[in-house]
Specification:
alpha/beta; Glutamine Phosphoribosylpyrophosphate, subunit 1, domain 1; Rossmann fold; 6-stranded antiparallel beta sheet; globular; binds fructose -6-phosphate
Amino acid sequence: MCGIVGIVSAKNVSEKLLNGLANLEYRGYDSVGMCFVNGNKLNIKKGIGKLDEVHKRVNFLKLNGNIGMGHCRWSTHGGVTEKNAHPHVDCKNKISVVHNGIIENYSELKEMLIGKGHNFYSQTDTEVIAHLIEDCLKGNKIENAVRNALKKVEGSYALGILFADSPDKLIAARNESPLVIGIGNGENFIASDVPSILSHTKKMIYLDDREIAVLTKDSFKILNLDGNEKKKKIHTIKWSAEAAQKSGYKHFMLKEIYEQPRAIADTLNGRISNSHVIFEKELGLSDDFLKGIKRIVILACGTSWHAGLIGEFMLEELAKIPTEVEYASEFRYRHALLGKEALAVAISQSGETADTIAALKEAKKYGVKTLAICNVMGSSITRISDGVAYTRAGPEIGVASTKAFTTQLAVLYLLTIMLAKLRETLNESQIKDMIAGIRKIPLQLQSVLDEDNEILKCAELYYNKQNSLYLGRGINFPIALEGALKLKEVSYIHAEGYPAAEMKHGPIALIDKNMPVLFIAPHDVFTYKKVLGNIEEVKARGGIIIAVATHGDKEVPKKANHTIFIPKTLYTLSSILAVVPLQLLAYYIADKLGRDIDKPRNLAKSVVVE
Ligand code: F6R
């Protein structure tokens, strides 16, 4: 996720651009850059680091003019370097591009353009767009060159484009990445989100996929890629500035829960075909090594540790690799007996958790290869690991981890498929089914988010309970742990996650008519029938049963006080769907209690002390 903002105006726009970028910084802070057009020349300043650090070094306000654009980067293709910072330009330094998204066919395009004599400067996927437009320009109108170039592009993009020789026009384009057009008075805007330009205009047009916008200071035109002009609705935004920061959501946690369909789609983008996972190059570990792994040790804390437990399940079940999941904070204090054919996998949203860093360093002492599953490019954990698989959740601001968790599960799933294929533990048709299953997840997640009535009702009824129990089995036992952790963190209500059958060995003593018991009970061939039995045991003791079950299930609703339905999916994917109602329940209960949801007491977003 990156942020882009652009303005074409009758007046100098440098301060407005700088403020716009400051509002977008939540979308990425690896590097930042700005570009102006002055007298048929592009003027660019950029650097790595956060906006205020780069601004101190380069002074963005030294750039000025009536047309300009800015970008803050959350790296996906190419490391965190100044060369990879946006804007990117063509060979003649006449076309400047800022981009949010992922160009899936960039390698083919780059090869084709190099063949035609284009010189590339960065490792980004974005730079191909500048050269592709250059290639399509050759005497054409600029908007036609942009349209023709984008017809060749596969993947997601929100783009801002400036041309040195057209100093009155700002061009924008969108496909599967957010972009709004702001209609001002004597000035027009483009931006990744509404809040970044809301103090200048409340009139917005939402671009749809494969549309381009051509803006001058006092006109705007929206075209599809065939060049047909489109009539678009102008929306008047009624949010307050504070609500707008969170795109209208009351808290970042809620916004991030709702971002999960997009985050999973981004995490899959360019990494799957119909029959296999395209991951090897990214991981930086050789096929020979991956084929020969004898054991995997997963190191993580908190929510990331819960993702690890689900990863263990997938890796053992499908790739047949013995796997252990260690609390990173405990790993250093025991003798792990790792051999050279082991792989240590560190899972961390921030990449800065002190215990996970320490555990990873400890694992390296055994001479094992290491892999990071991480959300933050260039973070400490990614720098000390041999390979990295990034989750592409985008910046997570709410302290309680939500979209980072589900994207970690998606990456673990892809890793499992890749290893299973290499080691021939799954056949082609099983792999196809698994890929088809995860392709459906973004839409299925959206449907879970759209049906939150029963969750809201449970929050209303039970927000004042003192305790609750979360029970699941098999791959969904860690979801019981995660659901309980979410509730504890944001509502401060005591909650325990337990394997459903273990309840009989102690916690069952707690059950009475005041105890909500959350069952994760999707319909599968492995645990479903047993979980039904566990539900009966709680019912017999008068507990309040809230169950997460599969659409169409007739048995669970007969026994539970409340049933929250999720769509049918593969057993190994049920956790990604099942956790979402539990995230929402924790959120709504905390909200009823008036908690400081995005910054719960005593907690920090990254725990950088051991
Ligand atoms: C819970 C939560 C924490 C983190 C843990 C590890 O909602 O956010 O439990 O999961 O502190 O953090 P990372 O993943 O950044 O290493």
